[in-house]
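Write out the 3D structure for:
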Amino acid sequence: MPPIPAVRFDGMWAPEFMLSVNIASGDDTRNDGRLETFDALYPRGSYFSEAAQLGPANFYNFHPYIYLYPSETIRLQFDVNFYWRLEQNDGVYGPPGNIIQLPNDNLDKKVNVAFSSGFEWEINEATNISLLATYSDPKGILATSDNHADSVKFVEFTVNWAFF
């Protein structure tokens, strides 16, 4: 889902505020023999962030972010992404649709909080570079998981060069 239209201010650094809110269905009854979880037919890894940890199933999230423009060619980004399970009986899924945490006795709906910041510089019409850093902190069901309780630190450096 695209973010809610941005609120952008003129003036120094021209701040731009945006909000993305997403929801994906889960399974109502765990043992009824029917899988009612949302299934993205052609999943891509980075639904919610470049760190690509969680997939679009059994959850809702709230994602406010801000862009700042200290110059015409530089953009700074700061955001926080909150994730919750839709139902207490829901598992947690990865980007390709694989289950990474089965439902268990933990009734906490919280799943994760991820903080990101980024820098993008448009050097010229054909070249730009970007740097993105994310810190992801498991909550609730993931915080008590044997396999997914550790925080994740992710850094991405990209150079885009278009040639004509």
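The longest helix spans residues 140-143.
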